[in-house]
Inverse folding.
């Protein structure tokens, strides 16, 4: 290659290199712009997603608010209808002075215009009267107390179709088994079932020992010393005995016969049996803890240190053809509220709502008498109890009331 050609080639290379450099310089800002645009688009999309999520949440909250408003409006209609009904007829098991002078005035704090007609009846008497009146078409209760849940009177009333469904707004507050999620009954009281004994008859020198397990009740040392509510009533005592069936297994019926042999008297209610122990005529009974909790100072009755504590659940339901259904609904709604449950606690009882029981005297006496108690809820009963109560009533009567 001659010098002229070489020079031309060198110049061409220089020009080419310069062109490449210029192109690179031109592309670099464009690439940066594209990256910036992508970043801006990502940020914009993120903001849009956040705005959409906020909108969706607002719509959900608006939907919930509308539902709550609709519920409030519907409930207000119930209140207005109840105001026109005026008086609620209530068949219950609780002492009349407590219901009329303590419970209803608390309800009237919310509904001062509401009036009450209350009739106090024993468990069996209430069921017999209520069923008889409904069958004949006679005037009857708008609201009834229900014992023996999940069997007992509940099974009778359900079989007869006597209970209306009403789902209280407070159902979510309750543990499973202590309120009906279908609204056929609401939990009124959940009493702790314990063994009470007369401190002047047991535990002293030369006296029979204080029972330490439920199995001890069949000990011949207690022959003639026991008074209990009729187990066949499938209430406080019957359910406690049934709650022993799983743990005792094949020995359970033998144990029942031993308890029956030691039992000198049976009563219609657990509290009536407790009175017999207080008097000193008997030494042992199975009862709810609230009777000891409400006893006067110096009463010679204490709770035996048996770790397994039963739970006797009493409910309240609305008659399916109630003459005053709206006032009945207001009462059930109030009953299941924290205020309603605390009102029953103030009478000395314990309730199905755990948060209401912290100051309950019936809860405190159990904790004082029994270290680390184990509670036997209604679902500790035999699995077929609710649907086959006659089977267990017949069994108990054959053992404790033969010939009935």
């Amino acid at each position: 290659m001659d010098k002229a050609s070489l020079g031309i080639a060198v110049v061409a290379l220089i020009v080419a290199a310069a062109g490449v450099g210029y192109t690179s310089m031109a592309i670099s800002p464009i690439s940066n712009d594209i990256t910036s645009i992508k970043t801006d688009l990502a940020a914009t999309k993120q903001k849009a997603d956040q705005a959409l999520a906020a909108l969706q949440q607002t719509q959900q909250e608006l939907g919930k608010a509308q539902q709550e408003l609709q519920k409030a409006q519907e409930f207000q209609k119930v209140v207005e209808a109840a105001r026109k009904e005026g008086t609620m007829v209530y068949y219950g098991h609780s002492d009349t002075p407590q219901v009329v002078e303590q419970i209803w005035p608390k309800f009237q704090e919310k509904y001062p215009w509401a009036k009450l007609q209350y009739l106090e009846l024993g468990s069996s008497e209430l069921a017999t009267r209520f069923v008889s009146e409904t069958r004949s078409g006679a005037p009857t209760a708008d609201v009834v107390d229900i014992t023996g849940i999940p069997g007992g009177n509940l099974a009778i009333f359900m079989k007869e179709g006597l209970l209306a469904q009403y789902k209280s707004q407070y159902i979510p507050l309750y543990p499973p088994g202590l309120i009906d999620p279908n609204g056929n009954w609401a939990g009124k009281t959940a009493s702790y079932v314990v063994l009470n004994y007369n401190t002047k008859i047991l535990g002293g020198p030369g006296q029979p020992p204080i029972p330490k397990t439920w199995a001890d009740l069949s000990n011949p040392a207690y022959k003639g010393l026991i008074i209990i509510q009729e187990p066949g009533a499938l209430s406080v005592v019957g359910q406690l005995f049934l709650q022993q069936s799983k743990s005792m297994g094949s020995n359970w019926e033998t144990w029942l016969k031993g308890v029956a042999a030691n039992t000198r008297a049976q009563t219609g209610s657990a509290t009536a049996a407790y009175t017999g122990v207080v008097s000193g005529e008997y030494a042992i009974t199975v009862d709810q803890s609230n009777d000891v909790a409400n006893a006067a100072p110096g009463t010679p009755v204490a709770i035996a240190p048996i770790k397994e504590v039963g739970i006797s659940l009493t409910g309240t339901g609305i008659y399916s053809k109630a003459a005053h259904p709206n006032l009945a609904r207001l009462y059930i709604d109030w009953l299941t509220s924290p205020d309603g449950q605390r009102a029953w606690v103030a009478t000395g009882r314990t309730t199905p709502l755990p948060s209401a029981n912290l100051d309950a005297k019936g809860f405190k006496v159990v904790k004082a008498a029994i270290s680390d108690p184990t509670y036997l809820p209604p679902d500790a009963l035999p699995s077929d109890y609710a649907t086959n109560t006659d089977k267990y009533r017949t069994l108990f009567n054959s053992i404790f009331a033969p010939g009935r």
The first strand starts at residue 87 and ends at 92. The chain has three domains: 42-85, 87-179+314-345, 190-311+354-400. The longest helix spans residues 3-85. The two ends are 136 Å apart (CA to CA).
